[in-house]
Amino acid sequence: MNxxxxxxxxxxxxxxxxIGFAIARALAREGASxxxxxxxxxxxxxxxxxxxxxxxxxxxxxxxxDLAARDGISKTIQAxxxxxxxxxxxxxxxxxxxxxxxxxxxxxxxxxxxxxGVRLSRHYLPQMKAAx
Length: 132
What we know:
The protein is of the alpha/beta class. It is 48% helix and 14% strand. It is built from 4 helices and 4 strands; from the N terminus they run βαβαβαβα. Helix 2 links the parallel strand 2 and strand 3 (59-64).
């Protein structure tokens, strides 16, 4: 498949494993320059290495940051000022009965799953719209 992503910049959050990693790998395979994110440098480095081993010439970089925190968002935006593709994949969930989820847990879930995407989209969307 050719998604015509050669020369495009992509940022995929929560991409050191699972669905996010698969998305980052697919974008790299299509020729995009991909930035992955994770909470630890070790996991980011491993994900980059795995993609580069599998896809010859893959253009992959990474950022270790907690995107649930404003500082992590700022670090990411500073490192990657513009993108053509933004995939807000980051999410956390702890399986337990609804009535056992405390307010602090809800706040952490909302900051991670929702506000990280809002903050990144607020920054990148105007540029993406202007570039059509």
